[in-house]
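Response to reviewer comment R2.3. The reviewers asked that we include at least one raw input/output pair. We reproduce the pair for Carcinoembryonic antigen-related cell adhesion molecule 5-like here without editing.
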Amino acid sequence: QPTVRSNVTDPVEFNDTVSLTCTASGSDVSYRWFNGSSVVSDSERIHLSDDNKTLTIPGVLRSDDGTLYCYVFNPVSNSTSEPFHLIVSYGPEEASIMAPDLAANGSAITLTCSAHSQPPSHYTWYLNGKQTANGSQYMIDHVSADNEGNYTCVAWNSVTGRNSSAIKELTVIAPIANINVKPTPAQPIENNTFSLTCNVTGTADSRLWWKDDQPLSTTERITLSGDNSTVSFNPVLQSDNGTYQCTASDPVSQLNSTGYRLDVNCKYKKGIESFFAYQI
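Raw output as returned:
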């Protein structure tokens, strides 16, 4: 049976010229090369020696990967070599990090680094320039402010000697911890001014108001402050009665207040005297 030998063990893309030589015993032997089931012919990319014993690929590429066979024959017999698997080493290229831009304080996250590489790359992680871990994944079980910053992943191929890197910035945000609705004044009186304020522990990027589970509609009489933290009634009326709720959110959390039941007290006048009636 013929044998196939290569001049290089781990050919590197662009760097190496691969020469495969077929050796067989016998006389008056002819040689033919196959890539899979296709006959290999002399071309711009692949050169065959005059006797077809040697196949040469200069500046080998990853597209040259394949399973090659040497077929030998003479007038009385023929034989095929064992398959020769040509695997071209390349990369790493286009390293990238898959990870969130924002993480909630106390949450768990995973950063994953990948790159096009043969053989697979080795990965090293750096946080703000300091080496922190090895491996394609970097897991943080309990995010804190110490985990904030620029993450760099360096992919390195031990065969090609090449590397590729990627950077990802992580921002840690404290989730909203508490939310409540505070009335001013404590007792709403019909035809007087009244307001509800959405108080939040933490930093809220947005606040939304609801009345009876529906988005609150504003009017010339019912207005919101610039940051939506306060809804003002000028004046407050019986028609405003209902359950009010505030929803606060930031990029990593959302919290709903308990419902505040607004029951407007009536204000009656008799002559020049005023008094407050029972709460509706």
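The CA atoms of residues 204 and 250 lie 5 Å apart. The radius of gyration is 38 Å. Further pairs are available on request from the corresponding author.
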